[in-house]
Amino acid sequence: MAIEYRISLGGDYEFNYRIELERVYDRERIPAAPAWTRLEYQQCSNCPLGREEYSHCPAALDLHRVIEDFRGLPAFQRASVWVRTPERDYHKETGLEEGLRALLGVIMATSACPMLAKLKPMAHNHLPFASNQEFVLRAVSLYLARQYFNLREGRRPDWELKGLVRVFQQLQLVNQAFWQRIHDTCEGDSNLKAFLTFFSMSSSITYSLETQLQKIRPLVMSAGESLE
Question: pTM of the entire structure?
Answer without folding.
Answer: 0.88
